[in-house]
């Protein structure tokens, strides 16, 4: 049995412009808690303020159910 987590990554979440180093740091934080990347998808992610969307990533993680 597995459990899944999906997160939205956009520039605001990373505290500035999205970069490979910042995304890598975020992925490593989840990996330290046992999550493994299952899929990364480019997507228009709805922002918290106002209408419209910003370009971002949807990351799906998987780990054995604890």
Taking Cα atoms only, what radius of gyration do you get, to the nearest Å? 13 Å
How many beta strands in the DSSP annotation?
Answer: 3
Overall mean pLDDT: 83
Structural class: alpha+beta
Principal-axes geometry comes out as globular
Percent range of helical residues: 10-25%
**Tally of DSSP helical segments:** 1
SSE succession: EHEE
What oligomeric assembly is this protein in? single chain
Describe this structure in words.
This protein is of the alpha+beta class. The chain is built from 1 helix and 3 strands; from the N terminus they run βαββ. It has one helix at 20-32, and strands spanning 2-9, 36-46, 53-64. A 3-stranded antiparallel sheet has the order 1-3-2, covered by helices on one side. A hairpin with a 6-residue loop joins strand 2 (36-46) and strand 3 (53-64). The longest helix has 13 residues, at 20-32. It is globular.
